[in-house]
Amino acid sequence: MRHRPIGKLWRRARLFRPVPAENLGQSASVGTVTQGGETHIGLGTLNGTLIVGVTLAGYDPTREKIANLISLTREEESAAKATLGAKPKK
Fold first, then answer.
1. Which of 41, 62, 68, 69 is least surrounded by CB atoms within 10 angstroms?
2. How many CB atoms lie within 10 A of CB 50?
3. Is 90 exposed, middle or buried (0-12, 13-18, 19+ CB in 10 A)?
């Protein structure tokens, strides 16, 4: 199975608007979707077969919120990797 950078997949979503962010890497994307007056800020990462997505609903995409979202995503990705690594191999 061939993997494409997640940003390219997300950008295909009709209402998705990319948001500039530092230190994301090729396999991550952050952006917003606004529908019905509510804005969601979403970030997704792809690392091998591990996909982590984090969304904040009802917030403006300020630099501080984006930085917090990136930090939270990294924490969740680390926790997921640790959990997956701790499982016995079959």
1. 62
2. 11
3. exposed
- CA-nearest of 3, 11, 58 to 27 is 3
Spell out, as residue ranges, where the chain has pLDDT lower than 50.
1-4
Q: In this structure, what token pair is assigned to residue 19?
A: 């948001």
From CA 10, how far away is CA 16, in angstroms rounded? 7
Residue 40 near residue 15 (C-beta atoms within 8 A): no
Residue type, 30: V
Predicted local distance difference test score (pLDDT) of residue 8: 53
Alpha-carbon distances, residue 77 vs 44, 45, 47, 63, 86 (angstroms): 10, 8, 9, 21, 14
Amino acid present at 4:
R
Residue 72 CA to residue 75 CA, distance in Å, equals: 5
Q: What is the pTM of this model?
A: 0.71
- The helix/strand count (H/E) of the chain reads as 2, 4
